[in-house]
Amino acid sequence: MTARDFQPILTDIVHTLTPDLGKEGQVAQYIPALARVPAAQFGMALRTCDGHEAAAGAADTAFSIQSISKVFALTLGMREMGEYLWDRIGREPSGTAFNSLVQLEFEQGTPRNPFINAGAIAVTDRLLNSCDPKAAMLDLLSGLAGEPVHFDEEVAASEAATGYRNIALANFMKSFGKLDHDVATVLDAYFHHCAVSMTCRQLARATGYLCRDGLHPFTGQPLLTDKQTRRINALMLTCGTYDAAGEFAFSIGLPCKSGVGGGIVAVVPDTLSLCVWSPALDATGNSLLGRRALELFAQKTGLSVF
Ligand code: GLU
Questions:
Q1: Is the pLDDT of residue 68 over 70?
Q2: Which of 10, 33, 155, 224 could cross-link 214 (Cys pair, CB 3.0–4.6 Å)?
Q3: What is d(CA 187, CA 219) in angstroms, rounded to the nearest whole number?
Q4: For residue 70, which of 250, 207, 184 has the smallest C-alpha distance?
Q5: Are 232 and 74 in contact (CB under 8 A)?
Q6: Pairwise CA distance, residues 181 & 260, whole Å
Q7: What is the pLDDT of residues 86-113, one digit of tens each?
Q8: CA–CA separation, 258 vs 277, rounded Å?
Q9: pTM of the model
Q10: What pLDDT score was predicted for residue 2?
């Protein structure tokens, strides 16, 4: 399939979902700056491995990428540290909420995987050993998107002001001796990572290396090895969509990562990367219409890793 074949599919999905805009689901409430985002918005964009793009709906509206940033933090961590990264972070689906404290206590401060909050906080702590994680994130994402990407400082401040659970998670890990750096410094970087603002079109480009064996979508230079890239895709498939990863694998069959800002990125290895966005979330914390859009995309294209 070429990008020309994908454009009518994306346009068709937007037409199908438009009547449902704003009818179901709820915008994330626990971060005040996100609770103010109008629910009735939807956008979608993709980029093929050979550089063709297709987009529909609000594909150029910026939104808070939230936990999608965990994919890029992990990418920085793998690139900077190799296997050392994994000393304090597991690779199993959690089966508990993304911000759960219970499991962390049972497992003595070692997070189940890098895509739950505790895991991303641990990755950020490790990044502080070798770089400035805030600058490294913007640098990585601006290069991958092909244009400057910024933090939404209002969202970062809103998270810092109300991030009681994340503050608890970080202190908990620190109490187990599983964070090297000062909790406030680690959390400042983590909150800023979540508060990156990007569009569907930018995220479809930025995830391009995940469908190209780790090669940068614009320069063609290796960002990660093909083995590291396969591992990120494996983690996205098994741990990328909160407690709905089994359902996503069952009904969509692609590595995905979602965020509470309503974005979901998905990867079709060797073919394309895509991003859908709609702010209203379902009960599992995934974008309700974003998930439907991915199901329709998988049905209409027959694309799947299985
Ligand atoms: N910033 C959010 C938090 O730390 C990210 C949650 C998410 O998107 O899963 O709670």
A1: yes
A2: 224
A3: 32
A4: 207
A5: yes
A6: 26
A7: 999 999 998 777 778 888 888 899 999 9
A8: 9
A9: 0.97
A10: 65
- Label residue 36 exposed, middle or buried (CB < 10 Å: 0-12, 13-18, 19+): exposed
152 lines ligand 1 (CB under 6 A): no
How far CA 46 is from CA of 7, 53, 79, 119, 163, in Å, comes to 9, 6, 25, 28, 32
- Strand pairing report for 272-277 and 43-48: antiparallel
Coil, helix or strand at residue 130:
coil
Ligand 1 atom with minimal separation from the 242 CA: 9
Sequence-distant (6+) residues with CB within 8 A of 121 are 111, 166, 169, 170, 173, 179, 186, 187, 190
Please choose from 31, 117, 166, 258 the residue to mutate so as to test ligand 1's pocket, defined by most ligand atoms within 8 A of CB. 117
Q: 54 — phi, psi (to 5°)?
A: -140, 150
Q: Which residue has the tokens 């964009």?
A: 45
Find where tokens 């996503």 sit.
Answer: 248
- Annotated catalytic residues are 67, 70, 190, 242, 260
Helices 133-145 and 69-81 cross at an angle (nearest 10°) of 110
What pLDDT does 4 receive? Answer: 65
Please give the single-letter amino acid code of residue 235: L
Q: How far apart are CA 287 and CA 99, in angstroms?
A: 17
Which residue segments constitute the domains of the chain, with CATH numbers given?
3-63+197-301 (3.40.710.10), 67-194 (3.40.710.10)
67 in contact with ligand 1, CB cutoff 6 A: yes
